[in-house]
Amino acid sequence: MIQNAFVMFATWHNVLAIFSGMVIGVIVGCIPGMTGAMAVALVLPFTFHLSPLIAILLLVSIYKGAIYGGSISAILIKTPGTPAAAATVMDGYALAEKGQAGKALYMALYASAFADFTSNLALIFFTGFIANFALRFGPPEFFTLICFALTVVAGVSEKSLAKGLISAGMGLFLVSVGIDAVYGTERFSFGNANLMAGLNFIPVLIGLFALPEIVANCVETVKDYAKAADANDSRVTWADFKRCFKTILRGSAIGTVLGAIPGIGSAPSAFVAYGEARRHAKHPETWGKGELEGVAAAESGNNGTCGSSLIPLLSLGVPGDAITGIILGAFMMHGLLPGPLLFQENGTIVYALFMGIMLTSAMMLLVGHFCIRSFAGITKIPKRILFPAVLVLCFYGCYAINNSMFDVLVMTCIGGLGYLMNCWKIPVAPFVIAFVLGPLLEDNLRRSLLMSDGSYAIFLRSPICWFFGAMFFVALFYVYRQRRAERKRVA
Fold first, then answer.
1. DSSP reduced 3-state for 179
2. 16, HSE (Cβ side, Cα atoms, 13 Å)
3. What is the pLDDT of residues 241-278, one digit of tens each?
4. Cα–Cα distance for residue pair 76/95, rounded to 1 Å
5. What is the DSSP code (8-state) at residue 156?
6. Does the pLDDT at position 16 exceed 50?
7. Nearest-CA neighbor of 143 among 447, 347, 471?
8. 467-481 in b/e burial notation, b at 16+ Cβ within 10 A?
9. Average pLDDT value for residue range 155-172
10. Which residues, in sequence order, are CB contacts of 422 under 8 Å at separation 6+?
11. Distance between terminal CA atoms of the chain?
12. Disulfide engineering: 266 pairs with which of 82, 98, 302, 463, CB 3.0-4.6 Å?
């Protein structure tokens, strides 16, 4: 069967599909507002007349390329191309301002490719084991996991924990806007139909990161980017990669496990990996100010989900997120039904698909190197030219999501809020983390309490709950000890 699978895969059509998909994905990922799900959905109709293997490899490559591509704009212009790159902004753009944009871009590429390769191996060798583990996650397990992930808020609150909690509180408040997912009641919509669906993540993300930077540089006297950062002048050395290897390995493992759990996604995985890496760092005070390990942690965390997100899809027929849901449609469109019988009835196609998925990691390195050299010129564009172009791109990206000017209004309002937060020295990172994790926190809390008729004992029902609950309190103790040491040092 494996020999037949290799014969089926070893054609230039499959390699071209992987290359084309990766290029499309990276370019789409670079454009703020153009998400990977949008790209996969747009290409899906064009795969109807292709063979099942070519079609699925093309869509999977677009998915992986988009997750990586978001880091390029996050590092160069402080605008995450995709939600998965939100954590990359914190240290990636700071490195670019120090003149080390190339170092950040290459570390993002290497960490992404390594994490993707690790995730692909897990998909091939541990599909059954990880799928069974993922099935053990119910609402209580999800809730304790998200509580543990939220402890990273304290770590990215910079000097003032109170301001960090205020920022996180604003993020949680904005998440509550819209229709309640449990009872279907309206919250803070004020009768506006546009608010019933809640606030879209992309306009909020662009408004929070890109607009304040543009406004601040319009108000102040600015210098040209050419002197601030040149992507060709800084490379990742072997010593840099060796120093970050443990972080990449940890982030890859976190992304692989969380990616196999339906409903988590790449953005929360990136923040969990970032938080864990910061907790294990020797100098956590440098994080958020241009730490190369921060880029490695975020990118290994989000790209580690790419391969493992296909585990529940192939083994159980359950899509883990919106993109894998679209890929599930591609399987069914070509007469393939994911699930336990897929390996028995179409084993040759599955093994050929595994071979193609392994090639995507190498293709990511190839396309990534080319894109870094191509986009390096962005760092040499004067800000008086770059920022108006970025502003137009932001407005276009927000409008293109739903063809709605309301999303543009949301981006503008959040941009004003972000500028005020910068003026008052309120950190933005806790806001983003709370906004990403807030829906998962609330939904799983309420579902758990509905399951137990209001009893909180349900959060102690399984070893998974115990583990993440214990990690939550350990993280709080670590944060308390770290803050106390900082106060003593300042005194």
1. strand
2. 4
3. 888 999 999 999 999 888 887 767 788 888 889 888 88
4. 9
5. T
6. yes
7. 447
8. ebbebbeebeebbee
9. 81
10. 212, 216, 428
11. 69
12. 302
Number of domains in the chain: 1
Contact 163, 426 (CB under 8 A): yes
Q: How far is CA 354 from the centre of its chain?
A: 23
Pick from 160, 191, 187, 185: which is nearest to 173 by CA?
187
Residue type, 268: P
What average pLDDT does this structure show over 447-471? 89
Compute CA distances 123 → 142, 266, 351, whole Å.
22, 16, 11
Range of the domain at 13: 2-490
Note the Cα 37 to chain centre separation in Å.
13
Q: Is 269 in contact with 440 (CB distance < 8 Å)?
A: no
Amino acid in position 142: F
Q: How many Cβ atoms sit within 10 Å of the Cβ of residue 110?
A: 22
Q: Could you please report the per-residue DSSP string of 203-265? A: HHHHHHHHHHHHHHHHHS----HHHH--TTS----HHHHHHHHHHHHHHHHHHHHHHTSTT--
Q: Which pLDDT score, from 0 to 100, does residue 108 have?
A: 92
Buried (b) or exposed (e) across 305-344, using 16+ Cβ within 10 A?
bbbbbbbbbbbbbbbbbebbbbbbebbeebebebbeebbe
Q: What are the φ/ψ torsions at residue 187 (nearest 5 degrees)?
A: -135, 120
Phi/psi for 352 (5° steps) reads -65, -35
Torsion angles phi and psi, residue 179, rounded to 5? -85, 130
Structure tokens at 108: 């993002």
User: Which distant-in-sequence residues (6+ apart) come within 8 Å of 132 by Cβ?
Assistant: none
467 is written with which tokens?
Answer: 């583990």
Q: What are phi and psi of 186, to 5 degrees?
A: -80, 140
In 3D space, the residue among 122, 81, 315 whose CA is nearest the CA of residue 206 turns out to be: 81
- 179 bridge partner residues: 186
Whether the Cβ atoms of residue 356 and residue 18 lie closer than 8 Å to each other: yes
284 DSSP assignment: G
The structure tokens 């070519």 sit at 54
- For the stretch 364-388, pLDDT in tens is 999 988 888 777 666 566 767 777 8
Please state, in angstroms and rounded to a whole number, the distance separating the CA atoms of residues 412 and 154. Answer: 28
Tell me the C-alpha distance between 444 and 151, whole Å. Answer: 17
469: which 2 tokens? 């609950």
